[in-house]
């Protein structure tokens, strides 16, 4: 757990007048320590015993707040299974097609592609998304046995 990240996040929440609650704090802490790009359901299950009165909707509402202030990124997959990423620096994702694991992958930003896309299409490009798919080392091992 990188404590300075939690402190930074708490400070930026403070500056946006977002009220801190124990649940909100726990969700944030979980997100920042998780490298797994959890879903709202994953977070709910992880904190269920600590906060028996908390609902999945509460988790979602908090994630929306964190997203609005730029603390997390939402990776949408066209259904309700959005994954949340507390790593808001530029990076790409490698995704296991067997177990769904998402691993951060650093590669020099493909800014040239954005520039070229603007040139060719006349769009004002704001972002891009690239995902790499395959089979993670764990799943490859499972197959061998
Ligand atoms: Zn896998
Ligand atoms: Zn990520």
UniProtKB/TrEMBL annotation:
Subcellular location: Cytoplasm
Matching Gene3D superfamilies: 3.30.1490.190, Winged helix-like DNA-binding domain superfamily/Winged helix DNA-binding domain
Keywords: Cytoplasm, DNA-binding, Iron, Manganese, Metal-binding, Repressor, Transcription, Transcription regulation, Zinc
Superkingdom field: Bacteria
UniProt binding sites for Zn(2+): 96, 99, 136, 139
GO cellular component: cytoplasm
GO biological process per UniProt: negative regulation of DNA-templated transcription; regulation of secondary metabolite biosynthetic process
One GO molecular-function entry: zinc ion binding
Entry cofactors: Mn(2+); Fe(2+); Zn(2+)
Cofactor notes: Binds 1 Mn(2+) or Fe(2+) ion per subunit. Binds 1 zinc ion per subunit.
Pfam families: FUR
PANTHER family for the chain: PEROXIDE-RESPONSIVE REPRESSOR PERR (PTHR33202:SF8), ZINC UPTAKE REGULATION PROTEIN (PTHR33202)
Similarity remark: Belongs to the Fur family.
Function, as annotated: Manganese-dependent repressor that controls a regulon of oxidative stress resistance and iron-storage proteins. May act as a hydrogen peroxide and organic hydroperoxide sensor.
Stated name of the protein: Transcriptional repressor
């Amino acid at each position: 757990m990188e404590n300075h990240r939690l402190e930074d996040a708490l400070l930026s929440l403070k500056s946006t007048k977002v009220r801190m609650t124990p649940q909100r704090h726990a969700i944030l802490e979980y997100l920042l320590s998780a490298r797994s790009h959890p879903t709202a359901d994953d977070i709910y299950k992880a904190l269920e015993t600590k906060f028996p009165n908390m609902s999945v909707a509460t988790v979602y509402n908090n994630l929306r707040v964190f997203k609005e202030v730029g603390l997390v990124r939402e990776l949408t997959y066209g259904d309700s299974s959005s994954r949340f990423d507390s790593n808001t620096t530029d990076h790409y994702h490698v995704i296991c097609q067997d177990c769904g694991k998402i691993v951060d992958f650093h590669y020099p930003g493909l800014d040239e592609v954005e520039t070229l896309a603007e040139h060719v299409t006349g769009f004002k490009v704001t972002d891009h998304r690239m995902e790499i798919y395959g089979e993670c080392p764990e799943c490859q091992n499972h197959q061998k046995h």
